[in-house]
Amino acid sequence: MATAAAPDVVWRILTDVTRVHEWSHECRRVRWLDGATRGGVGVRFRVCRSVATGRSGISFPPNRIAVQRSLPISGGWQNLPRRPS
Fold first, then answer.
1. What are the backbone angles phi and psi of residue 13, rounded to the nearest 5°?
2. Considering just the CA atoms, what is the radius of gyration of the chain in Å?
3. CA separation (Å) from 73 to 12, 26, 61, 76, 77?
4. Which residue has the higher pLDDT, 80 or 11?
5. SS3 at position 59
6. pLDDT, tens digit (0-9, with 9 covering 90-100), for 14-73
7. Which of 12, 25, 64, 73 is the most exposed place for a label (fewest CB within 10 A)?
8. What is the reported pTM?
9. How confident is residue 81, by pLDDT bands cut at 50, 70 and 90?
10. How far is Cα 39 from Cα 12, in angstroms, rounded to an integer?
11. How far apart are CA 9 and CA 42, in angstroms?
12. For residue 33, what are the CA distances in angstroms to 30, 36, 37?
């Protein structure tokens, strides 16, 4: 895939986790946690997702994810343990 967009513009779009629902059929919603408004090492966000199965769907418990590293070529994510109910 090729684009005329500058690399920093592409990187900014790809690292905006609140836009993942635009290209993922499972992701319903993503929101930043702890007052964050953009990605960076240590930043946390919450992901809500579901999968359609025939006439109904399966919803999964939200995941809290923390950014482990942030590099223009690859990124790392870590699922944080769920809080007890």
1. -70, -45
2. 15
3. 12, 24, 29, 11, 14
4. 11
5. strand
6. 778 888 888 888 888 889 999 998 888 888 888 888 876 666 667 777 778 777 776 655
7. 73
8. 0.61
9. low
10. 9
11. 22
12. 10, 6, 8
Q: Which of 61, 22, 15 is nearest to 37 (CA)?
A: 15
Q: What is the pLDDT of residue 71?
A: 62
What the block records as the tokens of 17 is 């986790």
Measured at the alpha carbon of residue 12, what is the angle toward residues 19 and 46, in degrees to the nearest 5?
40
Distance CA 4, CA 18 (A): 23
**Residues contacting 44, CB < 8 A, separation 6+:** 32, 33, 34, 36, 64, 65, 66, 67, 80
pLDDT at residue 53, as a whole number = 66
